[in-house]
Amino acid sequence: MSESRTMPPIEETGLTQGEVIALRESGLNNTVKASTSRSLVDIVRANVFTLFNGIIFAAMVMVLITGSWRDAVFGLIIIINTGIGICTELKAKRTLDKLSILVASDYLVHRDGKDVEVPHNDIVLGDLMWIRSGEQVPADAQIVHTWGLELDESMLTGESRTVRKGEGCDIFSGSTAISGMALVKVIAVGEHSYAAKLTAQAKVYKKTVSDLNKGINTILKFMTFLVVPLCVLLIWSQARTVGGWNVAISTGEWRSAVISAVAGVVGMIPEGLVLLTSLNFALAAIRLARKNTLVQELESVETLARVDCLNLDKTGTVTDGTIRLDSVKLLDIRSSGIMCGNVNEHDVRQALFDLSNEGQPNGTGQAILSGLREQGFVDGTVEARVPFSSARKWSSIYDGNAVWTMGAPEVILSQIDGDHADILKQVNDFANDGNRVLLVARIDGAAPDDYETNPKLNPASCPIALVCCSEHIRADAEETLAWFREQGVRCRVISGDNPVTVGAIARKVHLTGEHEPRFMDARELPADITELAQVLENVDVLGRVLPDQKKAIVEALHAGEHVVAMTGDGVNDALAIKEADLGIAMGNAAPATKAVAQVVLVDSKFSHLPDVVARGRQVMANMERVASLFLVKTVYSALISLGVVLTQIPFPYLPRHITYVGGLTIGIPAFILALAPNTRRYIPGFLKRVLHFAVPCGVAVGLSILSTSWLLPIFMKWDVQDSGAQLAMLRGVNAIILLMMGVFVLARVAKPLHSWRGILVLAFAAIGFGGMLVKPVADFFALVVPTGQMLAATMVAMVLSALVFLVCLRLVPKILSIVPYFKKTRQS
Predict the structure, then answer these.
(1) In contact, 526 and 547? CB cutoff 8 Å
(2) Is the pLDDT of residue 148 over 90?
(3) Which residue, 752, 756, 736, is CA-closest to 799?
(4) Alpha carbons 759 and 750: distance in angstroms, whole number
(5) One domain for residues 419 and 531
(6) H or E segment at 52?
(7) So which residues are the signal peptide here (predicted)?
(8) What is the mean pLDDT of residues 463-487?
(9) CB of 181 within 8 A of CB of 130?
(10) Virtual torsion, Cα 395, 398, 401, 407, nearest 10 deg
């Protein structure tokens, strides 16, 4: 605690040191316990005890009980997938723990008749505290005395209109003092304060469920109902093939029955797809992080892929935010017949300096101050001030002789007397050149008594001068916008500035390509969401947009069935960013804005946005491609298991066979394909499209394996139920058929094959068949190389399987087309 500079004299003495100590010991200080709703135990429990893990773990235990550990290697997927999930959520927990609407800093309180600075946490209930311009309110309080305090409460309400506060008014923690100052009495601290309650809500962990994840979960839920009874039936049927349970138990053949049942069950679970989804979301986040882009929710990667509409804030995206003062042009007042007294250029520039010299001037104000300081201007006389408000669009000062006003020309001119058509024409001419134009108006005489508490523009004010400033356009803006046009993403610029000015900048960066951008004043927008949606279809640039309109614009685009991304950096953008499907905050954005955004551009570079969208599209388009591979295995495993139960034959292959074939034709190729470039915009309906591909291929593979299992023993005159060697040979042949069919499916998924994709398919086919010739590999995975008559039979089986594959690809889609679920499936 340190003593601070002298503040305005007041009669109150504040709390004594003894009272402060007593209140602190009672827990009535401004400390908030930092914790999320999810503990480490909750996170571990949620990721370990999942439906997917339960099925795989049960299957692994069943195999281990038989003593055949080689057939249980599929269980490693549990460890990997669970580890990724826990690490991801722990990272989210750390982010949430750091989240706070309040920015911790020192504050000035009045105790024992003195002003002293104390940390945020040392403020106690009943403290007298100074709130100064630029400070954030740390605790709920009631105003005792005010010297023109004006607050921005948008961090709490999303409404960015600055609010003038009088004595007796309540103010809430999390709001920010824009101008003036006040002495306040603290009425709520710690977890009882308004901001703490909001922070608690923001810290509640909410897992975003993507279309892809919903599809996978649907499959897993279906498998749950199918797996248990089918596993029981498989064990029963396999026991019968060896002579019944008595024989199976006495001879030890029950182990083979269990392993066979697990082979069917594990094949039906797309375990690699679950892992690959987690890995790809994580890899996308890592790759974007390398380019200074923070993805705060991994599942938002899917939203990146679906975006077709991007709302841009002009400042900080199209322009870099730097502004310079270009000129101050006095208006020819006499030619308009308006009498405004004697005004010279020096007086106008001095007033302009004082109007801009607020506690926290915006970018335009800073540019004006910088330009006028270079001309030698310093602080002038200001007896009263009305700070700039985004709602009013103007600011004002009283210098002892006259009231000066500066702000948006069309707003000011609409509220003062006279015909100002000539002035508006000049404003539009300057704005058409891309200038940001402000108007300075003046009225002689004293300010009204309620000048600061009830600010109004005097209709008798005279327009004096036009101020022209210009913004620096980002060097990469035109190229970035061109990329979005090529990718089918509609970009709109939304700004609080003059629509003509914004339109001119949009024209310079070719926002709409060779076409002239269509601009509109947001004050003319309809309030009805449906009408607004229709209007927006024909608008590229919106100017004079109020903060509450930004959210309405997002809602209207949603009504038009668009997937909307919204960029922003101010607290007034928070509600629109939260309303958007994808909120993108700049790195210099307010904490509350970054908190509700799914993506943060750490270095605030607009040029990173194509990487953000392209990465999302790559992940989702490729995941849809590779999901087809995994679900083919699910379909044919279910079909084969059903065929085995109905026809009472030994299971056609071992779990290690499906591990070998699946790894070479699904798992590893899928991982490579998932990393390939792909800019196709993702469209909802993942599961339907994937099944439309997977069902025909899965049926083809399943029928091929079953046909071989039924016909080959007849052709070879084998008794596979009595001869373990002949059963092993049959399973070895089926492994070859399965590998061949897996290569066929991989070739279909990897198309077009005239590039590296064709080489990929050939490489894994060579590795798969070549592995059978490597003795350690063949021994571990129980692979066989047929010879003699067996080789000929295998070749015939492969040809027949290829024919079955082709027939199924033609017939099954036609059968599916009459199934209601698939009638409206949109093809990729």
Answers:
(1) no
(2) no
(3) 736
(4) 10
(5) no
(6) helix 51-66
(7) none
(8) 88
(9) yes
(10) 0
Q: What's the average model confidence in pLDDT over 533-560?
A: 89
Strand order, beta sheet including 564-568: 293-295, 599-601, 582-586, 564-568, 309-313, 490-494, 541-543, 519-521
The residue assigned the tokens 């015939």 is 796
- CA torsion 109→113→116→120, rounded to 10°? -30
The span from the CA of 723 to the CA of 732, in Å, is 14
The single residue listed with the structure tokens 């995941």 is 623
Residue 612 has pLDDT above 70, yes or no: yes
Residues 6+ apart with CB under 8 A from 660: 735, 739, 768, 771, 781, 783
What is the per-residue DSSP string for 174-219? T-EEEEEEEEEEEEE-GGGSHHHHHHHHHTS--PPPPHHHHHHHHH
pLDDT in tens, 626-651: 888 888 988 898 899 888 888 888 88
pLDDT above 90: residue 823: no
pLDDT tens track for 552-607: 999 999 998 898 999 887 656 777 887 888 888 887 776 656 777 888 888 878 78
**Mean pLDDT over the full length of the chain:** 81
Pick the closest to residue 53 from 30, 23, 85, 100 (CA basis): 85
Which range has highest mean pLDDT (541-550, 581-590, 665-674, 791-800)?
791-800
CA–CA gap between residue 716 and residue 753 (Å, rounded)? 37
Q: Please enumerate in sequence order all residues whose Cβ is within 8 A of that of 414, keeping only pairs 6 or more positions apart, or say none.
A: none
- Cβ-based neighbour number of residue 40 at 10 Å: 11
Residue carrying the six token digits 């299971």: 651
DSSP letter at 462 equals E
User: Rounded distance, CA 296 to CA 303, Å?
Assistant: 13
Query: What is the number of structural domains in the chain?
Result: 4
515 lies in the same domain as 429: no
Q: Which domain holds residue 157?
A: 2-33+101-202
CB contact set of 11 (below 8 Å; sequence gap of 6+): none
Question: 761 vs 273, 623, 748, 750, 803, CA distance in Å?
Answer: 19, 18, 10, 8, 20
Instruction: Pick the last residue of a domain from 202, 226, 256.
Output: 202
pTM: 0.61
Q: At what angle do helices 655-662 and 609-647 cross, to 10 degrees?
A: 150
The answer to whether residue 235 is domain-embedded is: no
**In terms of C-beta density within 10 A (0-12 exposed, 13-18 middle, 19 or more buried), how is residue 558 classed?**
middle
Active site (annotated) includes residue 313: yes
* Token representation of residue 130: 């100074």
Give the tokens for residue 26.
Answer: 């009672």
CATH number at residue 121: 2.70.150.10
Spot the catalytic one: 122, 127, 211, 313. 313
Is residue 437 classed exposed, middle or buried when 0-12, 13-18 and 19+ CB atoms within 10 A define those classes? buried
For residue 45, being part of any structural domain is answered with no
pLDDT of amino acid 283: 75
